[in-house]
Amino acid sequence: MSLFRQRRNVLPGFGLSLGFTLTYLSLIVLLPISAAFLKTMGMSWADFWHAVTGPRVMAAYRLSFGASLLAGGINAFFGLIVAWVLVRYNFTGKKIVDALVDLPFALPTAVAGIALTAVYAKNGWIGQWLEPHGVKIAFTRAGVLLALTFIGLPFVVRTLQPVLEDLEPELEEAAASLGANRWQTLTRVILPELLPALLTGFALAFARALGEYGSVVFISGNMPMRTEIVPLLIITKLEQYDYRGATALAVVMLVASFALLLLINLLQKWSAQWRAQV
Predict the structure, then answer these.
(1) Mind listing the pLDDT tens digit for each residue in 29-49?
(2) Could you give the CA distance from residue 153 to residue 42 in angstroms, rounded to a whole number?
(3) 30, 164, 183, 216 — which has fewest CB within 10 A?
(4) Of 31-45, 73-87, 253-267, where does the model show the most confidence?
């Protein structure tokens, strides 16, 4: 009789499962990414550098990364408040509000862009009241930021909700009984527990905003050097049959996104270690 009993798994053995996983990921993820890199290898370094550093391209970089970063920060702040309200309070219409959070998930991005443009345009429901005061949303960078904030909010809320549900209110009561005020309770008890999830939600919202196209293309106006984002510039190059230029931009965005996500993962690891020491 064997001293060790073999674990029974519902799925096949490790070798077969790993082989299927690697094959699937190779076909879905690695193959398209490799094709993008191979396409740019046919370009000289001078041509590649010219394609990814032109004045129009740099303006698109600044808008895409800057607006995505700002939208992620806005969603991290307000998403925390929304998740807190949905978890900690019971009120009439709570299920409706909870369902509305997922609306950007289900709504086609083009529909979202048209709806935002209709609301914030010069003759829109809200835009007609803002325009006389010199506040313009549609066809400006503010419109781009609004669209990116709209599509990124659910990522923060849905990431924070499970953590908030596991966070016992008794911890706050214990902190209050030990003399901590609300600010100390927030910064020393609640935020250390939420920080990894908050960073994850921010990363997801940032990554989602960085690749957004459909909702931005309508409300931005697509003006070169002003409201043109990198995904739109890639589409423009494809329409002009500049396949190598479009692929070069895609590679830059891919490398930048991977580097930023790696940095965020390192920050999450650091925050988890810091939380364990608190």
Answers:
(1) 778 778 777 878 878 888 889
(2) 40
(3) 183
(4) 73-87
Tokens read off for 168: 């016992």
Is 199 in contact with 268 (CB distance < 8 Å)?
yes
Helix 243-277 vs helix 31-41: angle between axes, to the nearest 10 degrees?
Answer: 130
Classify 222 in phi/psi space as left (phi over 0), alpha (psi -120 to 50) or beta: left
Token pair of 65, please? 């990364």
Nearest to 156 by CA among 211, 89, 216, 77: 77
Q: Which residue has the tokens 């609640």?
A: 190
Other C-beta atoms within 10 Å of 172: how many?
16
CA 6 vs CA 13, 20, 223: distances in Å:
11, 22, 64
pTM for the structure as a whole: 0.83
CA nearest neighbour of 222 among 123, 144, 116, 133: 144
User: Measured between alpha carbons, how far is 120 from 138 in angstroms, rounded to an integer?
Assistant: 6
- CB–CB of 79/157 below 8 Å? yes
Confidence at 105, pLDDT banded by 50, 70, 90: confident
Residues 6+ apart with CB under 8 A from 66: none
CA dist 173 → 73, 193, 253, 270 (Å): 29, 15, 46, 28
